[in-house]
Amino acid sequence: MSATSVIEMGDVLLVTVQGELTDHDAVALQQDLAANVAERSSRGVLIDVSGMEIVDSFLARTLHDIAAATELLAAKTVIVGMRPEVAITLVELGLTLPGLATALTVADGLAEFGDGVRPL
């Protein structure tokens, strides 16, 4: 079971994912984020995956698709908090997620957006 929350931090959306996402949940998240970015004219999305122990190929592709969709809506997506074992598994599966920005922490991810956004 997973819980996902979206917090608006100025013009950046912070998405936290706690637990594992089902394929259905991942697709719903993709649709919700695209709608939120368009409605709020967000310039960025931070997706905190530190609460996830497993990222399978479907979820990796969905994260990549979220970044592609938000980019088309003039927003940047940064994945933060990926665990080392998750990163190693993705590489072993050949899923390097080219073009997807990553950062170790939320503060590091916020720095990707420059001035105007401050961590809480």
UniProtKB/TrEMBL annotation:
Question: Which residues does UniProt assign to the signal peptide?
Answer: none
SUPFAM superfamilies named in the record:
SpoIIaa-like
Q: State the InterPro entries in the record.
A: Bact_StressResp_Reg, STAS_dom, STAS_dom_sf
* Gene3D superfamilies assigned: STAS domain
Q: What is this protein called?
A: UDP-glucose 6-dehydrogenase
The organism encoding this protein is Prauserella muralis
Q: Upper lineage ranks?
A: Bacteria, Bacillati, Actinomycetota, Actinomycetes, Pseudonocardiales
